[in-house]
Design a protein that fits this description.
single chain; 168 residues; mainly alpha; 0% strand; globular
Length: 168
Amino acid sequence: MIGKARRTSLERALILGAASALVLAVALGAFWIDAQWRLRLPDGLHWPGILALAVGLALIVWAEATLLRVAHSPGGFSDAPAALVAQGPYRHVRNPIYLGGFGVLLGLSWWRASPTLMVAALLFLPGMHVMVTRLEEPATRARLGAAYQDYLQRVPRWLPRLRRTGGG
């Protein structure tokens, strides 16, 4: 990138740590509210919650590993890839990290039977949708041009297509 230095590994780790701390603070706050008001989701969501949590974490790790391998960037936080990444989970959805984050929050809410965290999880994806459509996609379109515009046409934003359409 011209005129803009890439973040160091330490800076990336600190940013990831801060984002993780924010998620942890939201979860702990939700658990505290649930305990104070004696709120609890119905029984039977423990194992589905663990599964959703594991799938969400796996999706995040796969997406981050793909970004680092292909673009040598973790993406986001003002460290966006300089090249289009359309491999790994990015072949199927444009925002696998946010989708994985939703899975983590929803899974954690089910595992811990937390209705407050479930509400936070359900608000997370619409919030990310607004951020993606208003900020990320226009900036990426300006940065990557026609290649990104083609990618927008081929790959859905949130939900993968059930059947494969042409292309690689």
